[in-house]
Amino acid sequence: MKHLLVLTVFVASLAMASTPKFEKTKLFVKLNTNEVMPKHELITNVKHLFADNYLVTTTNSEKLATELANDLSVKLTEKSYYAGKRALPKASENKGGDFDFDIFSAFNDPKIGKIWSFRDAGKNGVSVNKSYLSPLGRTKAQVIVAVVDTGVDYNHEDLKNVMWKNTAEIAGNNIDDDGNGYIDDIFGINPLVKDSNGNATGDPKASHAHGTHVAGTIAAEQNNNVGIAGIASNAIIMAIRTVPDTSDETDADVVESFLYAAEHGAKLINCSFGKSHNEGGMIVNETIDHIGQNHGVLVLAAAGNDYGRNIDSRLTYPASFESDYLLVVASTSKGGGLSFFSNIGPKSVDLAAPGSDVYSTVPGNRYQNMSGTSMATPTTVGVAAEVLSHFPGLTPLQLKKVLMDSVTPVKKFSGKMVTGGRVDLFNSLQFTLENYSKL
């Protein structure tokens, strides 16, 4: 009997350990068409998201979900799950040392030679230097890029002049000047820190190097004789601090971040995060569809760093979602192959980009290396932003097609991703120039 009791406790403990954690005070509710949110004693606040989707604040999300299951006005409910804690990529010093420089004559930034991805396709890069030495002569539009991550050091010497600013908001007056529901959201928002009303606060400053590194790869100021340069010349960074320093972001915070970015003009969203469980929830996928269709946004997501995991069969999110407005990125190394840590997916992963030993900005006016599909994604976002600045009329689906149809093919990538190739800025620009009227 004693052994049976021990076994029962052990099995129960395993079950509890394998059940992903969810927010006890948040619940997504999808209503049936033309229905209104039912009143319920467990609901303390209701926020409309889009279409028939709402996020409610509650005193007991599990009990509320059970009781709303019998309400005829409610189509379904979804819990807001945590991603689970995991270590984010760590910054390190440049392995090549201060004298291991390439010569990129298109830029005067003193540390630019440490960014190996700027090399031409024949040297396993994405042809950044080549592209700037062969300008198309087109007037470039500004592109807002949302970095949904651990926050951004918006005072960094190489980022402070490329940050998006909410000009309708007055900094530091503790007032929601533009009436968008957020106080002092000058550079973006911080869903990780809520105000007394439960709303995200307005300071997305970084507490981890990850988001600042991502931002620098995309848009660090070019030709300012300081530090490095980003891939995109006319992108500005909207900072959204959604991912805690140990990961573990929630579905509710991700949805809020995507909607904020889209509603404030972002056309590209960088998602260098993910989780290995989803419990059948589709609200994040629906949000990606919504902002793509209604706001013209393309979301780019990291394939994940699980050492070759096939995310077609062993799903990871958001990368394994099937939205047409999502582009998923694997990571490549200096040698031209896939990074040893990179996930793959013949159906789920669209293309690859440099993600090993990427040199970029980190907080405190510093620069260091990081590795991960987290770094490959902003490399692709930088390419996407530069293409979109040249051709601002591209829709998200057209831009996705351009990036995928213009990759540099890599034989060893065949069968591991949709395109079997590495993103290439020069090819993307030339492809768009030649095919713009036919896209």
Would you write up a description of this structure?
- With 439 residues, the protein is of the alpha/beta class.
- The chain has 2 domains: 22-80; 112-438, 3-Layer(aba) Sandwich (Rossmann fold).
- Helices cover 24% and strands 20% of the residues.
- The protein has helices at 2-18, 61-68, 128-133, 209-219, 251-263, 283-295, 373-390, 396-405, 425-435; strands at 22-31, 43-50, 53-58, 74-81, 143-149, 188-194, 200-201, 235-241, 268-271, 298-302, 326-332, 351-354, 358-362, 366-370, 408-409, 421-422.
- The strands form 4 sheets. Strands 7-6-8-5-9-10-11-12 form an 8-stranded mixed beta sheet, with helices on both faces.
- Helix 5 packs parallel to helix 6 (283-295) and helix 7 (373-390) runs parallel beside helix 9.
- Residues 1-17 have low confidence and may be disordered.
Task: List the keywords.
single chain; disordered N terminus; eight-stranded mixed sheet; 2 domains; Rossmann fold
